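I'm stuck. Protein, please.
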Amino acid sequence: MTSPVESYADYDAPLSAASCIRVHFFSYGLCLSMPPVTALLHTENDALRLGRALETLRPCDEIIIVDHGSRDATVRIAREYGAHVFAFKAEASPGHYLQSARCDWILCLDPRESLTEGLEATLLEWKSVADVSNQAFSVFLREETPDGWLENPTPQTRMVPRSWTAWQGALPKHDPSAVALEGELLRFILP
């Protein structure tokens, strides 16, 4: 792949519209071979904490919110972040909502959780790998408690292929063979 700017002298040269687009795509690391990721969150009256979670989903190409009948501003906030919002249906399997996902990889998190900068960076790096196997990935979790932060020593399966069928409630069922990603999810107790 050639660099959009061939030499330092090119920084001062006027750019055509085509080269501006090429520079823009290069600078943000966009590449058609990247495996896109859909974030999946289940919500219910999470307006006070949802924005914090959604702010950290920069590595995700799409956000799907399954709302369990929120009576606050949860749905409005989700839509402000460009999320596709679906009403929870008791008869639907957890994988049912993934039929609407555009991406082949699903990152699942709770609205109380946020990605650390380290996990964001790992996901962006992961996306730069063109050949990704069809396995699950796990992440470590740090949970806020009244006495401080508690680190969970066992990673939790959180990124799965769209075809995943093993669910435990709204999150993927633990897969001991899942590869642990660097970085952590932070789970907050307060909004």
User: Anything to note?
Assistant: The mean pLDDT is 83. Residues 115 and 185 are 5 Å apart (CA to CA).
